[in-house]
Amino acid sequence: MQMTSLLPRDFFARDTLQVARGLLGQVLVRLLDGQRLSGRIVEVEAYIGEDDLASHARFGRTARNAAMYGPPGHAYVYQIYGLHHCLNIVTGPEGFPAAVLIRALEPLEGLEGMQARRGVADPALLTSGPARLCQAMAIDRRLDKADMCAPDAVLFVEIGAPVPDEDIVTGPRVGVQGDLRARTVPWRFYVRNHPCVSRGRTTDDRPRTTDDRPRTKKDDAR
């Protein structure tokens, strides 16, 4: 059995932006061959609904993105360029496609194994990007749809130290092209001046609030 400090499903079954903000400072843990690999979450991005044109759900449910429509607290792991993997954690109510991409970690445990898998010695470069952290922690498609809240989970999030609001930066998501809204919504959250963040400081240093999310047709219908 594991840890009483495991983040509960209720944590993930909330508004995606609240979950994204709340994940900063928490600890991602991977159990591998009897060893703990872990890192403090320092950068994330939110992807919300089929009307988010940067989301994999923009074309509806497919075999690839099915995990996004599943229960909160499950992993959505996808592959890019046929080589690299990225880890998301599903949020909100089941049936609504939303998830938080884990973009960067501050390595805590299992550094030697991470360094061997990455071929990199510098701790600041081990997990400073979504593909890097998956390689370092041996996260791949075999963990897609894994329940990260289960007592026997091998991939989960433990309660860490909260990050003060003044130390959190919001801004546009990385690498998003095309649609203006998708390119500009401030749904990236990271710890200010942290050396493990995957990219440099953005120009949008506003405190994060849920009101930052642009209104949608669903909002107007409420």
Write the layout of secondary structure elements.
Blueprint: H1 9-12, H2 16-23, E1 27-32, E2 35-48, E3 75-80, E4 84-90, E5 98-109, H3 111-118, H4 123-126, H5 130-136, E6 155-158, E7 168-171, H6 180-184, E8 188-191, H7 217-221
Antiparallel strand pairs: 1-2, 1-6, 2-5, 2-8, 3-4, 4-5, 7-8
Can you walk me through this structure?
This protein has 222 residues and is an alpha+beta fold. The chain has a single domain, classed as Methylpurine-DNA glycosylase (MPG) (3-methyladenine DNA Glycosylase, Chain A). Helices cover 18% and strands 26% of the residues. It contains 7 helices and 8 strands. The chain has helices at residues 9-12, 16-23, 111-118, 123-126, 130-136, 180-184, 217-221; strands spanning 27-32, 35-48, 75-80, 84-90, 98-109, 155-158, 168-171, 188-191. Strands 1, 2, 3, 4, 5, 6, 7 and 8 form an 8-stranded antiparallel beta sheet that branches. The longest helix has 8 residues, at 16-23. Mean pLDDT is 89; it is low at 200-222.
